[in-house]
Amino acid sequence: MSFAPVLHAEWIKIRTLRSLLGALAAMASATAAFATLAPSMAENDASDPLFAVFSGISFGQVAAVAFGTAAVSSEFRGGALRLTLAAVPDRGRWFAAKLTAIALPALAVGLLTGLLTLLVGEAALGTSGPAWAEGLRGVVGCGLHLTLMALFAAGLTAVLRSGVATLSVLIPFLLIASFVIGDVSGGVADLLPDRAGQVALHSSPDGSLGPWSGLAVTAVWTAAALLTGAWAVHRRDA
Description:
Largest sheet: none
Distance between the termini: 19 Å
Strand content: under 5%
Radius of gyration: 18 Å
Helix content: over 70%
């Protein structure tokens, strides 16, 4: 079977599972909703109006992680993966189609999220908002970061073979552990996948990473998770 019909089948799974559509909606709404608080955020850090607008990314990436996790974990329930592999024996082709079906809607919704967040934030901040060139970088950075986090979660889920296990690791890490590590480890925490990608959402990054190098670090984490996930899919029984 060629790649196109496999991708089409995986896309049908994505758009027919309500939990996945809900996660995509939450990704946009959670991030954009916090943009209404941009004036109060800007008061705390007047030098970074861009992150004042995109401060909700911490919650948006949780929804992105939930999306990537649910999209893969559904294959490990009720013998679904055995049926999938009976139709598509080439595991590499199936996994590539699954990841593509995750990445495309995540990127589309991520870019839409970034644009909506910027518009809401600019309206809230008025003349004190970020410059539009800076804001455009934030939109692109937001879309790429959310996509990478969804794929990172997808790769880890393929390794752990459980959505509960993946979320039990990633959600506390994103909401608690990453900030604790950042407080005690200095610049090392900037290399964590969630923190590195968010550098693109700061007006003037003050760490060792720039906007695009930060996204590159997150991409390396994601590639490692996906390669490990691909290995697990090839080596383990369905």
